[in-house]
Amino acid sequence: MGGHQEGAVSFQVGGAFFRPQGRLVRDLGVVAAALHRQQWGSLRVLEGMAGCGVRSLRYALESGANFVWCNEGNPDLAPVIGENLRPVTQYRISHEPARRLLARCVAEQDYYDFVDLDAFGDPLGELPYALGAMQLGGWLYLTSTDGRSLTGHLPPEQLNPFGGIARVHPAGHEQGLRILLGALQRQAASLGHGIRPGFAYFTGETYRILVQLTQRRQFNPKTYGWLGYCHHCGDYAVIPWRRLGRCPCPHDGKPLTLTGPMWLGNLHDPLWVEQMGALATAWQWRDVVQLLAGFAAEATLPPYFYTLRAIAQGIKGDLPRRSHLIAQLQAAGYAATATHINPEAIKTTASLRVCRALLSNLPNAQNPHF
Ligand SMILES: [Zn+2]
Fold first, then answer.
1. How confident is the model at residue 32 (pLDDT cuts 50, 70, 90)?
2. How far apart are CA 54 and CA 4, in angstroms?
3. From ligand 1's centre to the CA of 165, what distance in Å?
4. How far is the CA of 73 from the centre of ligand 1 (A)?
5. 3-class SS at 203?
6. Interval 66-117: pLDDT, tens
7. Structural Rg of the chain based on CA atoms
């Protein structure tokens, strides 16, 4: 059994499921938890689906957690977790379904600052208990691997379990993050609270969301609604609930395909990802810094993106260079940036038509009303 090294810790994997390429996702969690510790002065962590316990170990040693509860449903992993957590002073290990453990925390009013649920499949069954076991101001870091539901690829006779209708369109993975955030928002609202997205990260395979439990609901028509996609021209429109039923494509009047309801607010909290970036910079975690800078740039842009392929449709020649197109859009007065979700796509406040016009160097592309 070979030893592994990640961040500042060494550990064994034993028979646990462990993906070395998930390091960036674990790094993000460690930075976020450490930042919470800095800002609030204490950090109690509960990890519901721990595997070999590497994340609990890292929260303790690198984020400075005062206490970690490391739960893993599979009791066969007890020896390896016990061995891995030896350098930790304040911890507890258990082996039961995460849902049951969280429900007991709720009943005993045992609240946590940071709850990590690295679920396989979707985390919906755990959500009400996880939110209930959180301290106000605390963070929930969760995974969904259910891409088929979240991108609208279920068979037509099946509805996804997230309480939002997903459809297939080029920005499908951002839709996935936002439907998850919408489900969290509804769940928090049912407890009388709200959530603030810290960041929402599509890794290329899984959806990772970090949200903070807030005192007040954030559930309102500005942050929660529908997205329309036009299969005719390829553009999007945000549809508030009052406009449901009369929402033609604003560009050509064709009917829109609606998807949602979903979270329409910021995909990441600009201040939070900036603060995380400062901490990661101090630690010299370069790829984390770079990822967080990307999050900061895209945080407040519209809830969809355009692929370069969609922009270049009908235009002769090679696909445009992403950086070049972004610079052109910014020079024309629009906000524009890369999206972390797709290396061949951009987020911008310009319409698809304006992007196309810029690409073909049409003179009236400089006119924002074009
Ligand atoms: Zn259209």
1. very high
2. 10
3. 20
4. 49
5. coil
6. 999 999 999 999 999 999 999 999 999 999 999 999 999 999 999 999 999 9
7. 22
For residue 299, CA distances in Å to 174, 206, 271, 289, 346 come to 12, 19, 10, 15, 13
CA 352 – ligand 1 centroid, Å: 9
Q: How remote is the CA of residue 239 from the centroid of ligand 1, in Å?
A: 14
CA distance 216 to 219: 9
CB burial string 173-196: b at 16+ within 10 A, e below: bbbbbbbbbbbbbbbbbeeebbbb
Q: How far is the CA of 233 from the centre of ligand 1 (A)?
A: 4
CA–CA gap between residue 356 and residue 88 (Å, rounded): 56
pTM over 0.90: yes
- In the chain the domains, ranked by start, together with CATH numbers, are 3-296 (3.40.50.150), 307-366 (3.30.56.70)
How far, in Å, is the centroid of ligand 1 from the Cα of 18? Answer: 44
Token representation of residue 277: 């970036």
Distance 237 CA to ligand 1 centre (A): 9
- Give residue 226 CA to ligand 1 midpoint distance, Å: 16
